[in-house]
Design goal:
single chain, alpha+beta, 3 domains, six-stranded antiparallel beta barrel, globular, MnmA-like_central, ATP binding, tRNA processing, transferase, cytoplasm
């Protein structure tokens, strides 16, 4: 069932390991399943229950239901909690809803707003996994005497020669390794990802139908759960009044080309919606300067970046984090990994040299490291100010 399933062929003290890697029967193995109400986590819970595991479902209430109910398809909205509860009732396992609203706001939403105000482009889903689901919820799972915690993420956990390893999902189109780079080794030892080996989302939906789950045809959530209709600026303005103050659009030499309606409305690499057409060659957002409320634009060539500084590095490799490390890196979730040289500065900071310059490298995004010629995730870090142009 899981990426650890091959381990079932081995024995510990003459007791065969179950599909989650424990030397005891499934009925004596308690697993807490993080249930969002979507089809993925619902299938994980139903599959584990059908295999005889002692399943406990937990859904997090992350923000106010009143606002969430107006957002169809949002993660952990009122309907999603209801859907998770129905799955638990059908399959016959306990289900709990935990109020994490304050923790979510403090750990994720506030930083999301402040990052935009500082000119960065944050990825709140990573912070949610890091600071809420894989920290607070994982501790709750331990408090419930669980042997492990399972989620519906599309990523693989494999037993390596040295330790448990994190790998890309078998279906690279649904791979979520970019969003889970900050998973620590201790967390990885406790986590299980039963869907990571599936070849397509169609297989997941087929399993949901097989178990008779009402969410079998439920659409995937497309937006960040607390951002209705993808309108980031509206959320930031509500959280930080005055965040959308207008300012100048300038070129690389500081010449004023026009006015903008607030730095929070722009991202590095953006071309459309600048309102400065008719100036010759296309112009792109090259840099955001929130302190002067300036949006700096330039030609596409000005976007090329070779050296990327990263901080808050999480290292999952077997070898020490030092020297020069040849690897592949991904600087946006939608881009494939590219060859790079990783140069650690200390345990938590590094400089990444992209062998082929990338365009639109933005502070606040993640830079995720992968092993060469492998699907293994070696860790990653957060891209920090400042970008350096390609030489």
């Amino acid at each position: 069932m899981t990426a650890t399933a091959p381990a079932a062929a081995h024995r510990a003290d003459d007791i065969e390991l179950n599909s989650l890697g424990f030397a005891k029967p499934p009925s004596q193995t308690r697993v807490v399943v993080a249930m969002s109400g979507g089809v993925d986590s619902s299938v994980v819970a139903a599959k584990l229950k059908s295999e005889g595991y002692d399943v406990v479902g937990v859904t997090l209430q992350l923000y106010d239901h009143g606002a969430a109910l107006a957002k169809k398809g949002a993660c952990c909205a009122g309907q999603d909690i209801h859907d998770a509860r129905r799955v638990a009732e059908r399959m016959g396992f306990p289900h709990y809803v935990l109020d994490y609203e304050n923790k979510f706001r403090e750990s994720v939403i506030d930083e999301f707003a402040d990052a935009y105000l500082s000119g960065a482009t944050p990825v709140p889903c990573i912070r949610c996994n890091e600071r809420v689901k894989f920290r607070d919820l994982l501790e709750t799972a331990r408090d419930l005497d669980a042997d492990c915690m399972a989620t519906g993420h599309y990523i693989q956990r494999k037993d390596g020669s040295v330790r448990a390893e994190l790998h890309m999902a078998a279906d690279h189109n649904r791979d979520q390794s970019y969003f889970l780079f900050s998973t620590t080794q201790e967390q990885l030892d406790f986590l299980r990802f039963p869907l990571g080996h599936l070849e397509s989302k169609a297989e997941t939906r087929a399993l949901a139908a097989e178990y008779g789950l009402s969410v079998a045809d439920k659409p995937d959530s497309q937006d960040i759960c607390f951002v209705p209709n993808g309108d980031y600026a509206a959320v930031i303005e509500k959280l930080r009044p005055g965040a959308a103050d207008p300012g100048e659009i300038v070129d690389l030499d500081g010449n004023v080309l026009g006015q903008h309606r607030g730095v929070i409305h722009y991202t590095i690499g953006q071309r459309r919606g600048l309102g400065i057409g008719g100036l010759g060659d296309p112009l792109y957002v090259v840099r955001l300067e929130p302190e002067t409320r300036r949006v700096v634009v330039g030609p596409k060539t000005a976007l090329a970046t070779r050296i990327v500084p990263v901080s808050e590095v999480n290292w999952l490799g077997d070898e020490p984090f030092k020297g020069e490390i040849s690897c592949m890196v991904r600087i946006r979730s939608t881009r494939p990994p590219k060859p790079a040289i990783l140069r650690p500065i200390d345990a938590r900071r590094a400089e990444v040299e992209l062998l082929d310059p990338e365009e639109g490298v933005s502070p606040g995004q993640a830079c995720v490291f992968y092993a060469n010629d492998s699907t293994r995730v070696l860790g990653g870090g957060w891209i920090t100010l400042r970008r350096r142009p390609a030489s």
